[in-house]
Amino acid sequence: MAACRNTARERMEHSAVARVLDPIAQFQLYEDYLDSKVTPMDLFYSKSRELARKLVEHGRKGTVLSREEFEEKKAAAQIAEAAKSNTFYNRNQPATLASAGKELKDNFLKALAEREEANRSGKMTSVIFIRDHNTVGQEVSGYIDYAHRLKTQDFEPYFSGKKRLMPGRSDLCYYNWKTQVSTSNSSPNFEVIYNDPNGLLFKNTRDKKILNVDPLSGPGEDSNRTLLQSDLYIHVVIYDHSIRTV
Protein backbone atom coordinates (compact mmCIF):
# COMPACT_ATOMS: atom_id res chain seq x y z
CA MET A 1 0.00 0.00 0.00
CA ALA A 2 2.87 2.36 0.87
CA ALA A 3 4.46 1.64 -2.49
CA CYS A 4 1.20 2.56 -4.24
CA ARG A 5 1.04 5.86 -2.35
CA ASN A 6 4.65 6.60 -3.27
CA THR A 7 3.95 5.89 -6.94
CA ALA A 8 0.88 8.15 -6.93
CA ARG A 9 2.85 10.94 -5.27
CA GLU A 10 5.69 10.58 -7.78
CA ARG A 11 3.18 10.81 -10.66
CA MET A 12 1.71 14.02 -9.26
CA GLU A 13 5.18 15.50 -8.68
CA HIS A 14 6.23 14.54 -12.21
CA SER A 15 3.13 16.20 -13.68
CA ALA A 16 3.61 19.32 -11.57
CA VAL A 17 7.27 19.64 -12.59
CA ALA A 18 6.28 19.28 -16.26
CA ARG A 19 3.77 22.13 -15.93
CA VAL A 20 6.34 24.39 -14.25
CA LEU A 21 8.98 23.68 -16.88
CA ASP A 22 6.58 24.39 -19.74
CA PRO A 23 3.87 26.90 -18.73
CA ILE A 24 2.06 26.48 -22.07
CA ALA A 25 1.04 22.98 -20.94
CA GLN A 26 -1.25 24.43 -18.27
CA PHE A 27 -3.60 25.96 -20.85
CA GLN A 28 -6.16 23.67 -22.48
CA LEU A 29 -7.28 26.21 -25.09
CA TYR A 30 -5.77 29.22 -26.85
CA GLU A 31 -8.54 31.33 -25.30
CA ASP A 32 -7.36 30.26 -21.83
CA TYR A 33 -3.87 31.43 -22.75
CA LEU A 34 -5.19 34.80 -23.93
CA ASP A 35 -7.21 35.18 -20.72
CA SER A 36 -3.98 34.87 -18.73
CA LYS A 37 -2.66 37.91 -20.63
CA VAL A 38 -5.78 40.05 -20.22
CA THR A 39 -5.41 42.77 -17.58
CA PRO A 40 -8.18 44.50 -15.59
CA MET A 41 -7.43 47.62 -17.66
CA ASP A 42 -8.03 45.65 -20.88
CA LEU A 43 -11.43 44.55 -19.59
CA PHE A 44 -12.28 48.08 -18.46
CA TYR A 45 -11.70 49.63 -21.88
CA SER A 46 -13.01 46.78 -24.04
CA LYS A 47 -16.14 46.10 -21.94
CA SER A 48 -16.13 42.41 -23.02
CA ARG A 49 -13.76 39.50 -22.54
CA GLU A 50 -13.98 38.46 -26.21
CA LEU A 51 -12.88 41.92 -27.38
CA ALA A 52 -10.20 42.02 -24.70
CA ARG A 53 -8.80 38.74 -26.06
CA LYS A 54 -8.65 40.17 -29.58
CA LEU A 55 -6.90 43.29 -28.35
CA VAL A 56 -4.33 41.18 -26.56
CA GLU A 57 -3.85 38.81 -29.51
CA HIS A 58 -3.41 41.51 -32.16
CA GLY A 59 -2.09 44.38 -30.08
CA ARG A 60 0.92 42.73 -28.49
CA LYS A 61 2.76 41.10 -31.37
CA GLY A 62 6.06 39.60 -30.28
CA THR A 63 5.03 39.19 -26.65
CA VAL A 64 1.82 37.18 -27.13
CA LEU A 65 1.83 33.94 -29.13
CA SER A 66 -0.36 33.67 -32.21
CA ARG A 67 -2.84 30.79 -32.33
CA GLU A 68 -0.52 28.80 -34.62
CA GLU A 69 2.49 29.42 -32.36
CA PHE A 70 0.46 28.39 -29.30
CA GLU A 71 -0.71 25.16 -30.94
CA GLU A 72 2.84 24.31 -32.04
CA LYS A 73 4.31 24.99 -28.59
CA LYS A 74 1.53 23.03 -26.89
CA ALA A 75 2.09 20.08 -29.24
CA ALA A 76 5.84 20.24 -28.57
CA ALA A 77 5.16 20.36 -24.82
CA GLN A 78 2.90 17.31 -25.08
CA ILE A 79 5.56 15.45 -27.07
CA ALA A 80 8.22 16.34 -24.48
CA GLU A 81 5.98 15.32 -21.57
CA ALA A 82 5.13 12.03 -23.28
CA ALA A 83 8.83 11.34 -23.77
CA LYS A 84 9.52 12.09 -20.10
CA SER A 85 6.62 9.89 -19.04
CA ASN A 86 7.91 7.00 -21.12
CA THR A 87 11.29 7.30 -19.41
CA PHE A 88 9.71 7.84 -15.98
CA TYR A 89 7.51 4.76 -16.13
CA ASN A 90 10.16 2.66 -17.89
CA ARG A 91 7.84 1.21 -20.49
CA ASN A 92 9.85 -1.66 -21.87
CA GLN A 93 6.90 -3.86 -22.83
CA PRO A 94 6.33 -4.46 -26.56
CA ALA A 95 4.05 -1.69 -27.80
CA THR A 96 0.82 -2.48 -29.60
CA LEU A 97 0.90 -0.97 -33.07
CA ALA A 98 -1.23 2.17 -33.29
CA SER A 99 -2.38 1.11 -36.77
CA ALA A 100 -3.53 -2.35 -35.62
CA GLY A 101 -7.16 -3.07 -36.42
CA LYS A 102 -7.68 0.21 -38.31
CA GLU A 103 -9.49 0.25 -41.65
CA LEU A 104 -7.25 2.60 -43.61
CA LYS A 105 -8.34 3.97 -46.95
CA ASP A 106 -5.84 6.72 -47.74
CA ASN A 107 -2.56 5.69 -49.38
CA PHE A 108 -0.51 7.78 -46.97
CA LEU A 109 -1.98 6.20 -43.84
CA LYS A 110 -1.57 2.75 -45.38
CA ALA A 111 2.09 3.53 -46.07
CA LEU A 112 2.61 4.67 -42.47
CA ALA A 113 0.98 1.48 -41.18
CA GLU A 114 3.23 -0.67 -43.37
CA ARG A 115 6.31 1.03 -41.89
CA GLU A 116 5.19 1.35 -38.26
CA GLU A 117 6.64 -1.88 -36.85
CA ALA A 118 9.99 -1.45 -38.64
CA ASN A 119 10.35 2.13 -37.37
CA ARG A 120 9.39 1.17 -33.83
CA SER A 121 11.84 -1.73 -33.73
CA GLY A 122 14.73 0.20 -35.28
CA LYS A 123 14.98 -1.88 -38.45
CA MET A 124 14.12 1.21 -40.47
CA THR A 125 14.12 4.98 -40.03
CA SER A 126 11.71 6.83 -42.30
CA VAL A 127 11.62 10.53 -43.09
CA ILE A 128 8.23 11.91 -44.13
CA PHE A 129 7.94 15.01 -46.30
CA ILE A 130 4.55 16.76 -46.14
CA ARG A 131 3.31 19.91 -47.87
CA ASP A 132 -0.18 21.17 -47.09
CA HIS A 133 -2.15 23.94 -45.38
CA ASN A 134 -2.22 24.34 -41.60
CA THR A 135 -5.29 25.08 -39.48
CA VAL A 136 -5.25 28.77 -40.42
CA GLY A 137 -4.89 28.15 -44.16
CA GLN A 138 -1.16 28.84 -44.47
CA GLU A 139 0.89 26.55 -46.70
CA VAL A 140 3.59 24.75 -44.73
CA SER A 141 6.04 21.97 -45.51
CA GLY A 142 8.57 19.97 -43.61
CA TYR A 143 10.43 16.74 -42.94
CA ILE A 144 9.39 14.48 -40.03
CA ASP A 145 11.44 11.74 -38.35
CA TYR A 146 8.75 9.05 -38.25
CA ALA A 147 10.54 6.75 -35.80
CA HIS A 148 11.15 9.60 -33.35
CA ARG A 149 7.55 10.80 -33.56
CA LEU A 150 6.31 7.25 -32.91
CA LYS A 151 8.33 7.15 -29.69
CA THR A 152 7.21 10.55 -28.45
CA GLN A 153 3.63 10.82 -29.68
CA ASP A 154 0.43 8.76 -29.73
CA PHE A 155 -0.35 7.88 -33.37
CA GLU A 156 -3.76 6.33 -32.72
CA PRO A 157 -5.56 9.64 -33.46
CA TYR A 158 -3.74 9.90 -36.80
CA PHE A 159 -4.62 6.37 -37.89
CA SER A 160 -8.20 6.89 -36.66
CA GLY A 161 -8.58 10.05 -38.74
CA LYS A 162 -9.14 12.25 -35.67
CA LYS A 163 -5.99 14.27 -36.35
CA ARG A 164 -3.77 15.01 -39.34
CA LEU A 165 -0.04 14.48 -39.17
CA MET A 166 1.61 17.81 -39.96
CA PRO A 167 5.18 19.11 -39.73
CA GLY A 168 5.99 21.52 -36.90
CA ARG A 169 8.86 23.65 -35.73
CA SER A 170 10.28 20.83 -33.60
CA ASP A 171 10.64 18.45 -36.58
CA LEU A 172 13.73 17.91 -38.74
CA CYS A 173 12.80 20.81 -41.02
CA TYR A 174 9.82 23.17 -41.16
CA TYR A 175 8.89 26.06 -43.42
CA ASN A 176 5.83 28.33 -43.42
CA TRP A 177 5.40 29.77 -46.91
CA LYS A 178 3.21 32.62 -45.65
CA THR A 179 5.27 33.85 -42.69
CA GLN A 180 8.60 32.54 -44.10
CA VAL A 181 9.41 31.03 -40.69
CA SER A 182 12.00 28.29 -41.10
CA THR A 183 13.43 25.89 -38.52
CA SER A 184 15.66 22.80 -38.49
CA ASN A 185 16.41 20.37 -35.68
CA SER A 186 18.49 17.21 -35.57
CA SER A 187 16.79 14.18 -33.99
CA PRO A 188 18.05 11.02 -32.28
CA ASN A 189 18.02 9.31 -35.70
CA PHE A 190 19.15 12.04 -38.11
CA GLU A 191 21.57 14.94 -38.17
CA VAL A 192 20.37 17.79 -40.39
CA ILE A 193 22.97 19.04 -42.89
CA TYR A 194 21.68 22.19 -44.58
CA ASN A 195 24.87 23.93 -45.76
CA ASP A 196 26.04 21.24 -48.19
CA PRO A 197 26.50 22.14 -51.90
CA ASN A 198 24.21 19.21 -52.74
CA GLY A 199 21.37 20.77 -50.79
CA LEU A 200 19.49 19.50 -47.74
CA LEU A 201 20.83 16.19 -46.40
CA PHE A 202 20.08 13.97 -43.41
CA LYS A 203 22.88 11.91 -41.85
CA ASN A 204 21.75 8.78 -40.06
CA THR A 205 23.18 8.76 -36.55
CA ARG A 206 23.57 4.97 -36.41
CA ASP A 207 25.29 3.99 -39.65
CA LYS A 208 26.41 7.54 -40.62
CA LYS A 209 25.01 7.15 -44.13
CA ILE A 210 23.56 10.12 -45.97
CA LEU A 211 19.92 10.45 -47.00
CA ASN A 212 19.52 12.85 -49.94
CA VAL A 213 16.00 14.30 -50.32
CA ASP A 214 16.69 16.06 -53.62
CA PRO A 215 14.13 14.55 -56.07
CA LEU A 216 16.65 14.90 -58.90
CA SER A 217 19.25 12.79 -57.07
CA GLY A 218 19.24 9.28 -55.70
CA PRO A 219 18.27 9.02 -52.00
CA GLY A 220 21.53 7.31 -51.09
CA GLU A 221 22.81 3.92 -49.97
CA ASP A 222 20.25 1.67 -48.25
CA SER A 223 17.56 4.29 -48.85
CA ASN A 224 14.61 4.64 -51.19
CA ARG A 225 12.09 7.33 -52.05
CA THR A 226 8.32 6.77 -52.39
CA LEU A 227 6.03 9.46 -53.82
CA LEU A 228 2.45 8.94 -52.65
CA GLN A 229 -0.89 10.12 -53.98
CA SER A 230 -2.98 11.14 -50.98
CA ASP A 231 -6.41 12.68 -50.58
CA LEU A 232 -5.26 14.21 -47.29
CA TYR A 233 -2.28 16.28 -48.46
CA ILE A 234 -1.04 18.31 -51.41
CA HIS A 235 2.31 16.54 -51.55
CA VAL A 236 3.68 13.55 -49.63
CA VAL A 237 6.98 11.68 -49.99
CA ILE A 238 8.43 9.00 -47.71
CA TYR A 239 12.15 8.28 -47.56
CA ASP A 240 13.01 4.91 -46.03
CA HIS A 241 16.48 4.17 -44.69
CA SER A 242 17.12 0.53 -43.81
CA ILE A 243 19.48 -0.24 -40.92
CA ARG A 244 21.71 -3.21 -41.64
CA THR A 245 22.42 -5.55 -38.74
CA VAL A 246 25.63 -7.56 -38.71
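the 2nd protein, sequnce then structure:
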Amino acid sequence: MTETAEKPKMKRWRRLLGPKETLRLLEGSVVHREGALLALNKPPGLPVLGRPGDLSLDALLPALRRRLGLPAELHVVKAPAREYSGLVLLSSCYHTTKKLQQFFTDARWRGQYPATYRAITVGVPAEVEGEISAGLSWQQQGDRAMVVPVPAPGRRSLARKDVKSTLTRYRVLSAVGGCALLQLQPRTAFPEQLQVHLTLLLCPALGDHKHSSSVGRVLGVPFFLSPESAPAHTQVLDEELLSRLGLSPRQLHRLPLHIHLQELVLPEGPLCAPPPPYFLHTLRCLGLPEH
Protein backbone atom coordinates (compact mmCIF):
# COMPACT_ATOMS: atom_id res chain seq x y z
CA MET A 1 0.00 0.00 0.00
CA THR A 2 1.52 3.32 -1.00
CA GLU A 3 2.12 6.30 1.21
CA THR A 4 -0.07 8.43 -1.05
CA ALA A 5 -3.01 6.09 -0.57
CA GLU A 6 -2.64 6.30 3.21
CA LYS A 7 -2.61 10.05 3.58
CA PRO A 8 -6.41 10.48 3.75
CA LYS A 9 -6.50 7.92 6.57
CA MET A 10 -3.86 9.86 8.49
CA LYS A 11 -5.93 13.02 8.19
CA ARG A 12 -9.01 11.27 9.55
CA TRP A 13 -7.01 9.90 12.46
CA ARG A 14 -5.95 13.31 13.73
CA ARG A 15 -8.49 15.68 12.20
CA LEU A 16 -9.99 17.87 14.91
CA LEU A 17 -13.77 17.66 15.00
CA GLY A 18 -16.04 20.50 16.05
CA PRO A 19 -18.90 20.16 18.57
CA LYS A 20 -21.55 19.41 15.91
CA GLU A 21 -19.47 16.74 14.18
CA THR A 22 -18.52 15.14 17.49
CA LEU A 23 -22.15 15.16 18.62
CA ARG A 24 -23.23 13.37 15.42
CA LEU A 25 -20.42 10.87 15.90
CA LEU A 26 -21.52 10.13 19.47
CA GLU A 27 -25.16 9.84 18.44
CA GLY A 28 -24.21 7.21 15.91
CA SER A 29 -21.94 5.34 18.32
CA VAL A 30 -24.63 4.03 20.71
CA VAL A 31 -23.98 0.32 21.38
CA HIS A 32 -26.51 -0.23 24.18
CA ARG A 33 -29.66 1.52 25.38
CA GLU A 34 -31.90 0.01 28.04
CA GLY A 35 -33.75 1.65 30.90
CA ALA A 36 -31.54 4.27 32.54
CA LEU A 37 -28.36 2.95 30.89
CA LEU A 38 -26.76 4.20 27.69
CA ALA A 39 -23.43 2.95 26.32
CA LEU A 40 -21.38 4.70 23.62
CA ASN A 41 -18.24 3.78 21.69
CA LYS A 42 -16.00 6.83 22.26
CA PRO A 43 -13.45 7.92 19.66
CA PRO A 44 -9.87 8.60 20.83
CA GLY A 45 -8.89 12.17 21.66
CA LEU A 46 -12.18 13.19 23.29
CA PRO A 47 -11.76 13.96 27.01
CA VAL A 48 -14.52 13.02 29.41
CA LEU A 49 -14.14 16.24 31.38
CA GLY A 50 -12.78 19.61 30.32
CA ARG A 51 -12.49 23.22 31.32
CA PRO A 52 -15.43 25.54 30.62
CA GLY A 53 -15.57 26.18 26.88
CA ASP A 54 -13.50 23.09 26.00
CA LEU A 55 -14.87 20.29 23.85
CA SER A 56 -15.50 17.30 26.10
CA LEU A 57 -17.96 14.46 26.53
CA ASP A 58 -19.39 16.07 29.64
CA ALA A 59 -20.02 19.36 27.79
CA LEU A 60 -21.88 17.51 25.02
CA LEU A 61 -24.12 15.39 27.28
CA PRO A 62 -27.04 17.88 27.49
CA ALA A 63 -27.21 18.15 23.69
CA LEU A 64 -26.77 14.39 23.29
CA ARG A 65 -29.64 13.78 25.72
CA ARG A 66 -31.91 16.01 23.63
CA ARG A 67 -30.83 14.38 20.35
CA LEU A 68 -31.61 10.93 21.76
CA GLY A 69 -34.91 12.04 23.28
CA LEU A 70 -33.95 11.12 26.85
CA PRO A 71 -36.05 12.70 29.60
CA ALA A 72 -33.38 13.02 32.31
CA GLU A 73 -29.84 14.35 32.68
CA LEU A 74 -27.02 11.95 31.79
CA HIS A 75 -24.22 11.06 34.20
CA VAL A 76 -20.90 9.39 33.39
CA VAL A 77 -20.59 6.03 35.14
CA LYS A 78 -17.36 4.83 33.56
CA ALA A 79 -15.29 5.98 30.60
CA PRO A 80 -11.81 5.46 29.13
CA ALA A 81 -9.15 8.16 29.29
CA ARG A 82 -8.95 10.91 26.69
CA GLU A 83 -6.54 9.19 24.29
CA TYR A 84 -8.25 5.79 24.56
CA SER A 85 -11.18 4.68 22.46
CA GLY A 86 -13.99 2.46 23.68
CA LEU A 87 -16.95 2.00 25.96
CA VAL A 88 -18.49 4.92 27.79
CA LEU A 89 -21.22 3.95 30.24
CA LEU A 90 -23.82 6.64 30.96
CA SER A 91 -26.88 6.68 33.21
CA SER A 92 -29.92 8.95 33.42
CA CYS A 93 -30.56 7.88 37.03
CA TYR A 94 -28.39 9.25 39.84
CA HIS A 95 -28.93 6.19 42.06
CA THR A 96 -28.07 3.81 39.21
CA THR A 97 -24.89 5.79 38.57
CA LYS A 98 -23.76 5.51 42.19
CA LYS A 99 -24.76 1.85 42.40
CA LEU A 100 -22.73 0.90 39.30
CA GLN A 101 -19.71 2.95 40.35
CA GLN A 102 -19.74 1.11 43.67
CA PHE A 103 -20.13 -2.19 41.80
CA PHE A 104 -16.91 -1.54 39.84
CA THR A 105 -15.05 -0.55 43.01
CA ASP A 106 -16.25 -3.65 44.87
CA ALA A 107 -15.37 -5.90 41.91
CA ARG A 108 -11.76 -4.72 41.99
CA TRP A 109 -11.58 -5.25 45.75
CA ARG A 110 -12.85 -8.82 45.25
CA GLY A 111 -10.03 -9.47 42.80
CA GLN A 112 -12.23 -9.33 39.72
CA TYR A 113 -11.48 -7.58 36.45
CA PRO A 114 -14.62 -5.77 35.22
CA ALA A 115 -12.86 -3.89 32.39
CA THR A 116 -11.12 -5.50 29.42
CA TYR A 117 -8.99 -3.54 26.96
CA ARG A 118 -7.32 -4.38 23.67
CA ALA A 119 -3.92 -2.92 22.79
CA ILE A 120 -1.59 -3.18 19.82
CA THR A 121 2.02 -3.14 20.97
CA VAL A 122 5.43 -2.61 19.44
CA GLY A 123 7.15 -5.68 20.79
CA VAL A 124 5.92 -9.03 22.06
CA PRO A 125 5.97 -9.92 25.79
CA ALA A 126 8.37 -12.69 26.79
CA GLU A 127 5.52 -14.59 28.46
CA VAL A 128 2.18 -15.32 26.80
CA GLU A 129 0.29 -14.15 29.89
CA GLY A 130 1.05 -12.69 33.27
CA GLU A 131 0.65 -9.73 35.61
CA ILE A 132 2.36 -6.36 35.71
CA SER A 133 2.68 -4.96 39.22
CA ALA A 134 4.25 -1.59 39.92
CA GLY A 135 4.04 1.47 42.12
CA LEU A 136 3.00 4.57 40.16
CA SER A 137 3.18 8.24 41.05
CA TRP A 138 2.98 11.67 39.50
CA GLN A 139 6.32 13.40 38.92
CA GLN A 140 6.94 16.90 37.66
CA GLN A 141 9.29 16.96 34.67
CA GLY A 142 9.91 20.48 33.50
CA ASP A 143 6.58 22.10 32.73
CA ARG A 144 4.56 18.88 32.63
CA ALA A 145 3.47 16.21 35.10
CA MET A 146 4.24 12.60 34.17
CA VAL A 147 3.12 9.27 35.57
CA VAL A 148 6.26 7.28 36.42
CA PRO A 149 6.93 3.83 37.89
CA VAL A 150 8.37 3.68 41.40
CA PRO A 151 10.56 0.62 42.07
CA ALA A 152 9.94 -0.93 45.50
CA PRO A 153 7.81 1.88 46.99
CA GLY A 154 8.11 2.23 50.77
CA ARG A 155 5.25 1.80 53.20
CA ARG A 156 5.26 5.49 54.12
CA SER A 157 4.93 6.68 50.53
CA LEU A 158 2.07 4.19 50.00
CA ALA A 159 0.38 5.25 53.25
CA ARG A 160 0.68 8.94 52.29
CA LYS A 161 -0.72 7.96 48.85
CA ASP A 162 2.29 9.57 47.16
CA VAL A 163 2.59 6.22 45.37
CA LYS A 164 -0.14 3.77 44.43
CA SER A 165 0.34 0.02 43.99
CA THR A 166 -1.11 -0.96 40.61
CA LEU A 167 -1.76 -4.26 38.88
CA THR A 168 -2.71 -5.24 35.32
CA ARG A 169 -3.30 -8.74 34.00
CA TYR A 170 -2.31 -9.30 30.36
CA ARG A 171 -2.60 -12.01 27.72
CA VAL A 172 -1.12 -12.15 24.23
CA LEU A 173 -3.94 -12.82 21.77
CA SER A 174 -1.74 -12.86 18.66
CA ALA A 175 1.75 -11.83 17.58
CA VAL A 176 3.26 -11.27 14.13
CA GLY A 177 6.51 -9.65 13.04
CA GLY A 178 7.45 -8.12 16.38
CA CYS A 179 4.02 -6.64 17.11
CA ALA A 180 1.22 -8.06 19.25
CA LEU A 181 -2.45 -7.75 20.08
CA LEU A 182 -2.86 -7.87 23.85
CA GLN A 183 -5.79 -8.24 26.20
CA LEU A 184 -5.36 -5.99 29.25
CA GLN A 185 -7.39 -6.17 32.46
CA PRO A 186 -6.49 -3.57 35.08
CA ARG A 187 -7.16 -4.55 38.67
CA THR A 188 -6.48 -0.98 39.84
CA ALA A 189 -7.28 2.44 38.39
CA PHE A 190 -4.54 5.05 37.93
CA PRO A 191 -4.06 7.59 35.11
CA GLU A 192 -2.00 6.19 32.22
CA GLN A 193 -1.59 2.90 34.10
CA LEU A 194 -1.88 0.74 30.99
CA GLN A 195 0.63 2.77 29.00
CA VAL A 196 3.25 2.68 31.77
CA HIS A 197 2.68 -1.02 32.45
CA LEU A 198 3.22 -1.80 28.77
CA THR A 199 6.56 0.02 28.81
CA LEU A 200 7.56 -2.09 31.83
CA LEU A 201 6.83 -5.13 29.62
CA LEU A 202 9.17 -3.46 27.08
CA CYS A 203 6.23 -3.44 24.65
CA PRO A 204 4.87 0.11 24.39
CA ALA A 205 1.46 0.68 22.85
CA LEU A 206 1.45 1.70 19.22
CA GLY A 207 0.80 5.45 19.05
CA ASP A 208 2.03 6.14 22.61
CA HIS A 209 3.89 9.41 22.14
CA LYS A 210 4.18 9.99 25.87
CA HIS A 211 5.71 6.86 27.40
CA SER A 212 7.21 4.87 24.52
CA SER A 213 10.49 6.79 24.84
CA SER A 214 11.08 4.83 28.08
CA VAL A 215 11.85 1.75 25.96
CA GLY A 216 15.22 1.90 24.21
CA ARG A 217 16.85 -0.63 21.89
CA VAL A 218 20.43 -1.76 21.32
CA LEU A 219 20.97 -4.18 18.44
CA GLY A 220 17.24 -4.83 18.45
CA VAL A 221 17.12 -5.77 22.14
CA PRO A 222 14.71 -3.60 24.20
CA PHE A 223 15.58 -2.18 27.62
CA PHE A 224 13.87 0.18 30.05
CA LEU A 225 15.03 3.77 30.43
CA SER A 226 14.16 5.88 33.45
CA PRO A 227 11.66 8.66 32.63
CA GLU A 228 14.25 11.25 33.71
CA SER A 229 16.66 10.09 31.00
CA ALA A 230 13.98 9.60 28.34
CA PRO A 231 11.84 12.72 27.81
CA ALA A 232 8.57 12.21 25.97
CA HIS A 233 8.63 12.50 22.19
CA THR A 234 6.84 11.16 19.11
CA GLN A 235 7.11 7.38 19.03
CA VAL A 236 10.00 6.07 16.93
CA LEU A 237 9.32 3.07 14.66
CA ASP A 238 11.81 1.25 12.44
CA GLU A 239 11.61 1.41 8.66
CA GLU A 240 10.19 -2.09 8.30
CA LEU A 241 7.27 -1.37 10.62
CA LEU A 242 6.66 2.01 9.02
CA SER A 243 6.44 0.27 5.66
CA ARG A 244 3.93 -2.29 6.95
CA LEU A 245 1.79 0.54 8.32
CA GLY A 246 2.13 2.60 5.14
CA LEU A 247 3.54 5.54 7.08
CA SER A 248 6.38 8.00 6.70
CA PRO A 249 8.28 9.32 9.76
CA ARG A 250 6.62 12.71 9.26
CA GLN A 251 3.19 11.13 9.68
CA LEU A 252 3.98 9.39 12.96
CA HIS A 253 2.80 12.22 15.20
CA ARG A 254 -0.72 11.68 13.79
CA LEU A 255 -0.77 8.02 14.80
CA PRO A 256 -3.40 7.60 17.57
CA LEU A 257 -2.93 5.51 20.68
CA HIS A 258 -3.99 1.91 20.02
CA ILE A 259 -5.65 1.11 23.36
CA HIS A 260 -9.38 0.35 23.28
CA LEU A 261 -11.82 -0.34 26.13
CA GLN A 262 -13.67 -3.28 24.59
CA GLU A 263 -15.73 -4.80 27.42
CA LEU A 264 -17.31 -3.88 30.74
CA VAL A 265 -18.87 -6.55 32.94
CA LEU A 266 -22.09 -5.28 34.57
CA PRO A 267 -24.33 -7.08 37.09
CA GLU A 268 -26.61 -8.03 34.18
CA GLY A 269 -23.75 -9.27 31.99
CA PRO A 270 -21.01 -7.93 29.68
CA LEU A 271 -21.22 -4.93 27.36
CA CYS A 272 -18.94 -4.80 24.33
CA ALA A 273 -17.82 -2.16 21.82
CA PRO A 274 -15.92 -3.01 18.62
CA PRO A 275 -12.53 -1.34 18.01
CA PRO A 276 -12.60 1.77 15.82
CA PRO A 277 -11.83 1.58 12.08
CA TYR A 278 -8.22 2.80 12.42
CA PHE A 279 -7.53 0.04 15.00
CA LEU A 280 -8.92 -2.64 12.69
CA HIS A 281 -6.99 -1.14 9.76
CA THR A 282 -3.75 -1.42 11.75
CA LEU A 283 -4.49 -5.06 12.61
CA ARG A 284 -4.89 -5.81 8.91
CA CYS A 285 -1.68 -3.98 8.00
CA LEU A 286 0.25 -5.96 10.63
CA GLY A 287 -1.40 -9.28 9.81
CA LEU A 288 -2.82 -9.64 13.32
CA PRO A 289 -6.13 -11.52 13.73
CA GLU A 290 -8.96 -9.38 15.15
CA HIS A 291 -10.12 -11.83 17.89
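The two ends are 24 Å apart (CA to CA). Helices lie at 3-14, 19-27, 57-68, 94-109, 155-159, 193-200, 239-245, 277-286.
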